[in-house]
Amino acid sequence: MILPSANLNLLQANAGRSVALRCACDFEDVRRASVAVREFLVGEGVGGEEAAGLELALVEALNNAVEHTDGRATDMPIEVEAHVMADGVVLRVCDHTPGFEWPEQAELPDETSESGRGLFLIQALTDRVEYFRGKGTNLLTMRKACPVRVAAIPLTQESLRSENAELEETLTGMTEELSSNYETLTSIFRYSSELASARSLPEFASELVQDLARMTCADGVVLRLLDEQSGMLHGYPPSESGIGSEPVALDNRDSIEAASASSLEDRWFDPSGPLAETDPLRMSGKFQIGVSHALVLNERLLGTITLGRRGGEYAFRSREISVMHTLGDFLAFQVASERLQEERMKTRVVRRELEIAASIQRSMLPAKLPVATPYSLAASCVSAREVGGDFYDAIAVGEVGVLLVIADVMGKGIPAALLGAILRSGIHSMPQYFDQPAMLLSAVNRVLYDDFSRVDMFATVALGYLDLKERRLCVANAGHPPVLVASPGANVHTALASSGPPIGVLPAVEFHPDWVKLPAGSRALFHTDGLTELSNFEGQMFGEGGLGTWLQGARGVQAEASDLAASLAGRLGSFRGATPARDDQTFVLIADSLHTP
Amino acid sequence: MNTNTPNSHILAVQGTKELNGSGATAFRDSTKRALAATHTILEVDLAGTTFLDSTGLGALISLHKEMCSRGGQMRIVNPSPVTVQLFELTRLHRVFEIQNR
Question: What is the pLDDT of residue A12?
């Protein structure tokens, strides 16, 4: 039997304080009954919001009755009573269905469940619920404390008044909604104009974080930006103390921020789904409730933003979440554009720095090697991808000799190139020692020690004084690879090794000269470790052995130094193959070109 | 129920005046029937929906699951403040993407 809507049986309407209805056991009729109850409650001075909440609780209760019906109960009506007291409302539902077990505490089902929220809603919307499951009859009582206006005014006036109150509530709600959107928008406009006035990103971010905390009533907002190289989420702006000062690894399984960052989804926490014991956020002891949001731009993770509250019952509301999303997206955009700018600047600076370093290095090399008859000289300096501090020099000493210089300043780029230039000037400033390499090294070290040690740098240097008359070479070596000499008479080359530490390591050093004869057909090679440490694709190094073998082979050939230099360059190139050179390759060759062995 | 298709990937539907025990299932079923294989986004406009109960929530979750299983998305558009409160109470605002336009 289905009762038509007009026949919602009004059993009682006691002095305007109670109503009893009877409705059929189907969805449409119970819905009509709940609407009638809400209208009754509003008419009795219950606030619109409370009445709407009770209407929903009643619908849920009645739906349950309809859902738990059986053949017999379908024909039995459901009775509904509403009582308005001075301080609240009591609702009663009496049905004749088989009923069900009412749980001690109704919990929300899994988020993907399509049913099972009714009891939870009843509990959440009322203060007290009692359910008696009887034979053929079940009685549900729901109580809710709420302010009730005294119905002293005639009904028409009263209903007008409650309508006004409802309208007012709606207006308040709309104003709140609008003002929160407005606030978000004004913030964004303000940020945009402030950004245009070249404020720094950290300042901007910290202001945005403060605004966001205020707009969402959060006790704290934690912003983290991802460092892509280390895979760590760093607190931003960086602070020495406070939440977020310790970085969190993206793969930290305990961190809700890392979880949100990895899944690119919002992650929530509250007392029913708390943070992991070892979550850095939890260890800060500050947040009980919150949500973590991943900042993403063009599918690229930039960081996370987390809202947190110390406690309280309420999770963040969707309006607050939407403010966080909007401001977060805006921030992500700013971060991304700042990073792009930085990367561009950095590339430009690095490129410019390399150009400067290369030009300093070029300026240190002599435009032309001096004549050294009866010998011929050749030199080469090939820069690696990153310019280093290698250089060579050859200075005529009257018409009787030539001072040969080869040096390798530790490090790369402009600093190495600048110290190379200082070293070269230091050598040039002491012509009195040009024919005494050991003295020259000691003097240069003494003069430049302060400059080098101040910046924690040093240089290896080999000096050779080629005596054209006596046909001999005097070598002094400060930490540099040995000068190799091959003579026609010997099967093994001679290595004139270092006799002291590099320039800039110790304040006072005595270097010792090594004298070697350079008879007809001899070759001498000054080189930097860029030659011996050159690697092939198998990772093998050319080594001093490789150089020595080449030099021995070059000994019996009639050739100018420049031919030999081309041959050495070819030999190095074929050894290296396609493997890029990591260091500068610099060498100076002396060859006797007038005599055959 | 009104459906219109502003974009071939988006199916936009308007929630009925009430999404309750007597109408939610029909709304769910008719929306599912209107979904074509090309639809990757379902927009449910709740501007005109003045009452929503747990069966209405169940219908929305069912549609959300349907979209997820297709690899698509569902959005709730313009819910009333009361509806938003209901989502918050049942924590479904964590599940649904909610937009106000």
Answer: 41
C-alpha distances (whole Å) from A452 to each of A297, A366, A410, A415, A478 are 47, 23, 10, 11, 14
Least CB–CB distance from B88: residue in A28, A30, A318 = A318
Q: Hey, which residues does A586 pair with through a beta bridge?
A: A381
Orientation angle between helical segments A201-215 and A318-364, nearest 10 degrees: 170
To the nearest whole angstrom, how far is the Cα of A181 from the nearest Cα of chain B?
A: 10
Cβ <8 Å between B88 and A266: no
Mean pLDDT of B32-36: 93
Q: What average pLDDT does the segment A547-557 reach?
A: 83
A315 chain-B contacts, CB cut-off 8 A: 88, 91
A31 vs A185, residue with greater confidence: A31
Q: How many CB atoms neighbour CB A256 within 10 A? A: 26
Select the residue from A38, A59, A326 to test the B interface by mutation, using most B Cβ atoms within 10 A.
Answer: A59
Q: Do A121 and B62 touch (CB under 8 A)?
A: no
A108 closest CB neighbour out of B22, B65, B91: B91
- Which of B20, B61, B65 has the CB atom closest to A27's CB atom? B20
Q: Say how far apart CA A519 and CA A526 lie, in whole Å.
A: 18
Interface list for A 23-52 with B (CB within 8 A): 26-28, 30-31, 52
Residue-level pLDDT at A9: 44
* Residue A14: pLDDT band with limits 50, 70, 90: very low
Structure tokens at A425: 């000037």
- Tell whether the torsion through CA atoms of A147, A153, A154 and A156 is positive or negative: negative
A28 residue type, one letter? E
Q: What is the mean pLDDT of chain A?
A: 83
Distance, CA of A220 to CA of A239 (rounded, Å): 15
Q: Residue A318 is nearest to which of B21, B57, B93, comparing CB atoms?
A: B93
Q: What is the pLDDT of residue B4?
A: 56
* Share above pLDDT 70 across residues of chain A, in percent, rounded to a whole number: 86
Q: Are A287 and A220 in contact (CB under 8 A)?
A: yes
Query: A110: distance to nearest CA of chain B, Å?
Result: 10
**Which pTM value belongs to this model?**
0.44
Beta strand pairing status for A514-517 and A494-496?
Answer: unpaired
At A156, is the pLDDT very low, low, confident or very high (cuts 50, 70, 90)?
A: low
Cα distance between residue A508 and residue A456, in whole Å = 16
